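Review session, final week

We close the course with one last complete record, chosen because it touches almost every idea we covered. It is Tripartite tricarboxylate transporter substrate binding protein, a protein from Celeribacter baekdonensis B30 with 316 residues. Go through it on your own first, then we will talk.
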Amino acid sequence: MLKSLLLGAALGTSLLASASAQDYPTQDIDLVVPFDPGGSVDVTSRLLAEAANKYLDGVSVVVSNRAGGGGVVGQSFVSKAKPDGYTVLAMTSSVVTNPQLKGAPYKIEDFTPVAAYNLDPEVIAIPASSPFQTIDDFVTATKERPLNITVAGIGTSHHMAGLALTSAAGLEFNYIPANGFGEQLQAVVGGHADGAFWPMGEAMVHAEAGTVRILAIASDARDPNFPDVPTFEEAGLNIPIWATFRGWAVPAGTSDETVTFLSDLLKKVFEDDTYQEKMAAAGFDAIYRDAANFQSIITAYSNQVVPIIEDNGLAK
């Protein structure tokens, strides 16, 4: 009798879990952006949510900003959330570096990747009035004196890009930390810095407006919008690709069925023409990489950046 009761209870629990997974989602999904409104992650997350909600029935993806600590506040919140698929992280490369650089209380293993929706390659941007006409001019100048480069902050992926250039190509820089992209832009346009390391998504509109010039792009191919700008590899900088990744992740322990649902949802969004047009208009290249491929991107970035952090004594 007891054995039958236990078996029945086990079957009941299993069926309940199965039904729960099949019914997902039954409530709104909280998409946590760990940065302030208006930045690249916030803008792309809102475009994603707008498109995703067309494919959801009776529920919505709702963007919430939980900024602070260079992403640590929002990232930590999601790492501790219930793994039920209703709390999703707008995941960026800072998730890899924040535990080392800022002592974030989570590990990368505390998240399960869902899908990547954007890879934003790093560029070297300079004032439109800069005397450097080519990337060769820029490289030559760094051999004569360290150039002043404005970055979003020490320990960001953009600062890491500069350290990678020092390791791979012997370029030397002085770093000027800034509070946000606007402050960096003012420094570059005003000639207060020799240049900046930016993601293409933020640099593009200003390069097209003629206020800055792009000397090189850390991608495996030239950007069709700037066909005369060489890649880092073509410029002899010995870095095949350096890109900020953006995607979705959920707390570790989230069911495979839920991860698959969310990944398939992002694939539908990727195939949406209106979403593609809005991403392009905002300066972002829309991509889709499923959970396994997103994990490969994260691992590759970690393998690149962790040794740089350790070699430069930046780890906490």
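Two points worth writing down before the exam:
The chain is about 45% helix and 20% strand.
The chain has two domains: 23-119+243-311, 121-217.
Good luck, everyone.
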